[in-house]
Amino acid sequence: QVPLKPGRSLMDWIRLTKSGKDLAGLKGKLIEVTEDELAKHNKKEDCWICIRGFVYNVTPYMEYHPGGEDELMKAAGTDGTDLFDQVHRWVNYESMLKECLVGRMAVKPIAAPKGEGCCIYSVFLQQIPEDKTILCMRTFISNYIFFSSLCFLFYSYDWFQTDSLITIVIYTKQKDMNAELVIVDCQDKRLRGEIIVDDHSYLVEVGRYCNFACETFSLLVNIAEKVGKVEIILKKKDNIRWKMLGQPLEHHNTFIKCKDRGLFYRKCKLVSKMEVTHDTKLFCLMLPKSTHLRVPTGQHVYLKQIIAGTEVVKPYTPVLPFLPLDFKEPSHYDGAHIYLMIKIYSCGLFTQALDDLQIGTYISVSNPEGNFKKSQVQTSEDLFLLAAGTGFTPMVKLLNFALTEVSCLRIVKLIFFNKTDDDILWRNQLEELVLKDERFEVQFILSQPTKDWVGKQGKISSSLLSEFVKRSRKDSKVLICICGPTPFAEQGVQ
Questions:
Q1: Least-confidence region, from 149-153, 428-432, 468-472
Q2: C-alpha distance from residue 293 to each of 155, 186, 301, 452 (Å)
């Protein structure tokens, strides 16, 4: 993020979009945009960007973009979909930029070869000698069918019933299947079960034939890890015989990349808010009884709120309710709650609205996202965690996992950067943890310390890191995890 000029906050942008001004610059008309036309609008004072086939005039948004004008200019006059997805595909751009909509991209028709019927393989085949064409077509089609059918060889489902229960069984044949890879929601008259497989997912999604007793009965998920079988058990609301599980929905029985699946949200109840520091609170959200969701270590979720009529989304990494000192997750942490440690910014539209929520109100929480793999820790001997401010949050579960389940680790060291000692999150708990496990060390570093501070001071730098990031042995395998504001992370990587 970059510092924005006064009067260029998210709330200011929302006000501008509701002012009636012609932000698209077309006096309310929508046009069809060719690639050539799009390419002409590639300057800061005249910038159009295409996202998923829709073209937006982002010129008026330049000064309001939290990531700065230069980031927007990377996609100026082009299709910015991939860049957008890499940085923040979770942002609801349709809502944020609806008043900047120019129109749709024109679709280039592919001309069929003369004298031939329309053939979707024409471009692929025109480079192939005539005598090889039939063979190539057969190979191409066979490979396509093989790829499309691959998931059905490994992923399938069935369902069974008794007088009172419905059991859906998903067969994955995935030997390392666990609770974190299964997400189930039964809400809004539909049943949704998703199995995560690396960067893909398999989805069972149907409109319910009858009702489940979701309000009074928590769904059960049983996993046979060795064979990869997942059982989802729900209670019928009425003891009647079902003729079918439900009407298949659009993405039912599909196996596609997670990023193409889109985010799914469920409403979670705010059950508590606890002060952690002068400006940071621990929020506890309760999942619906009809939801099974475990957020993996190192992954985040998105919170969604409607603010002044505009949908606003922000990512947060769940933590534990406290740092476990006996190296076990707290017994009452049963997966029914999500804990979020959030800094409340005085000028932050989203966090202020979040802080204003009353206990008992609901907020939308997405499926988890992230690329971190536990195996990276399991193959390491020295683990260094560099955190700044609330960049500490992903380190909480990571610390618990490392000290609980990774016996090969010789050093686990947290280097925690803050402005003042009042900003240090869970300082007492971290210091207690040092006494509990000789492998764990913590180093607090302040950039704006008081006169009483006797610890280290400064900002992240190569000289400072060289003092604290040292291998336990010459040949030890090292993993360094960094989280904090973008400049901090970039400086740390450098």
A1: 149-153
A2: 20, 12, 11, 45
